[in-house]
Amino acid sequence: QVQLVESGGGLVQAGGSLRLSCAASGTSFTMNRVGWYRQAPGKQRELVASITTSGGTNYADSVKGRFTISRDNAKNTLYLQMNSLKPEDTAVYYCNLVTTFGGYTYWGQGTQVPVSS
Question: Rounded CA gap, 7 and 72, in Å?
Fold first, then answer.
C-alpha cells in the first residue's frame, strides 16, 4: 500500500523560504513519476513541479527560478525548496506519485503554506 506523508508547511512571510518534504512508503520515488501540486482557495489544483524516474524536472512558469524539486533516494523522500515566496504562493501543497506500471495515482494529505504580505 502506497502512502505519502507531507511535512514542512507553515506560515511564512513574503520573501521567505520553506522546504516541504514528502516521505513515501510502499514504493520508491525513483521508480515512479513524482511531483508537487498546489491548490489555492477557490482555484483548481495545479502542478508546481515534477521529477521523472530519470531525474528530469519540470516547473510551472510561476515558480521557475524560485522553487526546486529534489529527491533523496536513500531516504525515499521528495522535497520542494521554496524561496522568495509570494502571497500568491499561498495554497495547500500536495505530494503526488504516478506509478510507472499501471498509472495509479496517489496523493498525500496536503500541507498548508500561507504566505503573508
Answer: 15
DSSP string computed for 20-43: EEEEEESS-GGGSEEEEEEE-TTS
Residue 31 clears pLDDT 90, i.e. is over it? no
* Contact assessment for residue 108 and residue 7, using Cβ atoms and an 8 Å cutoff: no
What Å distances lie between residue 71 and 13, 19, 106, 117, CA to CA?
26, 12, 17, 30
Is residue 30's pLDDT more than 90?
no
DSSP at 84:
S
How far apart, in Å, are the Cα atoms of 93 and each of 1, 63, 104, 107, 111? 22, 13, 20, 10, 5
CA dihedral 12, 13, 16, 19 (to 10 degrees): 10
The CA distances from residue 52 to 16, 55, 96, 99, in Å, are 28, 5, 12, 11
CA distance 50 to 114: 22
Q: What is the mean pLDDT of residues 54-67?
A: 96
